[in-house]
Write a structure and sequence with these properties.
8 helices, 18 strands, 2 domains, Cytidine Deaminase, domain 2, 28% helix, alpha+beta
């Protein structure tokens, strides 16, 4: 397996991968219930966001995966399950996208490069470049893996087209980052931890205020726009997320309307009060957006939603009939 060390590259598109500890804890739980002592590994999708070279992993879910122990070229990744579950999660939190995948094998396997370069082709809501995080489920501290390594692919020889994994710094985030609640993995097994985690996320999303912001010029640099939006709306409460439509390759802004998520008492009223204000060269236009989750809009309770998601995961993974 080709791996390029960080110091071999003069510059990296990704500088660091930050994983929430509860995501790691629940990946371990998932591994132990599905393949413990079998010698097999569990793989799954990582959800989160990428900002200024830092990948934040805030959620994940397992994906059915099979591979031949003797022939690494024979493997099967269930793309239908990947897309189906992603649609479910996007309905709950539209700000999370696929940032990569995980493997509960502590080292890179011979087929990882093939899996990495092909499984997300044609998949919706995928940020580029994607990362692979390998997790050593044997080495635990307080139930959380002590070892996790992150990689993404680069051209191993300029212009050759041959890819290799580039190792990047990995960090385990504290349980609370900036006062915000981060999301844990949906572990399909019907256990209380999974249900409570999804319930907590549902209630958290209910408290969010989603606003549409327009008025800027698409010729702006995306990092400048992100900084401008965060500074402009920080008086409204905690700026939880900013979604600026960008081109996946050029990273140019593609739309004159972005979505900002706020959290805090009176956030909606404070945001609307900024409608028509000057954001340093452009006039801000603000509009409130409805809940992104259709179940939330329909009045479904947090418990009902959590149980339905866990039940769906159980059925797809074959844990229940």
């Amino acid at each position: 397996m080709d791996v390029i060390k960080t110091q071999q590259m003069s510059a990296s598109m990704i500088e660091k991968v930050v994983v929430h500890p509860l995501v790691l804890r629940n990946i371990v739980d998932n591994h132990n219930r599905l393949v413990k002592d079998s010698g097999k590994r569990v793989v799954g999708a990582l959800l989160g966001s990428i900002s200024r070279g830092i990948v934040g992993v805030t959620n994940s879910y397992a994906v059915p995966f099979n591979e031949d122990d003797k022939d690494p070229s024979i493997w099967c990744f269930n793309s239908h399950h990947l897309e189906y579950m992603l649609d479910s999660f996007k309905g709950l939190n539209g700000m999370e996208n696929v940032v990569g995948w995980y493997s509960t094998c502590p080292y890179l396997r011979d087929n990882d490069l093939a899996v990495h370069s092909s499984v997300f082709k044609g998949c919706s809501y995928v940020l580029s470049p994607i990362v692979l995080v390998t997790i050593d489920v044997r080495s635990l501290e307080l139930g959380i893996p002590a070892t996790a390594k992150a990689y993404y692919t680069v051209d191993s020889s300029l212009g050759s087209g041959k890819e290799a994994f580039l190792h990047v710094s990995t960090e385990i985030a504290p349980p609370e980052v900036g006062g915000r609640l981060l999301v844990t993995e949906m572990t399909p097994g019907g256990d209380n931890d999974a249900v409570e985690s999804i319930e907590a996320l549902y209630r958290f999303v209910q408290k969010k205020v989603r606003i549409s912001v327009s008025g800027y010029d698409t010729s702006l640099n995306v990092l400048d726009l992100l900084g401008s939006l965060e500074k402009h709306f920080e008086s409204c409460g905690s700026v939880e997320n900013i979604d600026v439509p960008i081109h996946p390759v050029t990273h140019a802004i593609t739309d004159r309307c972005s979505t900002v998520c706020l959290l805090g008492e009176g956030a909606a009223e404070k945001a609307l009060a900024l409608n028509g204000s000057d954001a340093g060269g452009w006039i801000v236009s603000v509009a409130l957006l409805p809940p992104e989750c259709k179940e939330m809009a329909a009045g479904m309770s947090a418990r009902e939603f959590a149980l339905s998601i866990v039940e769906l995961g159980n059925k797809i993974l074959g844990l229940t009939k």
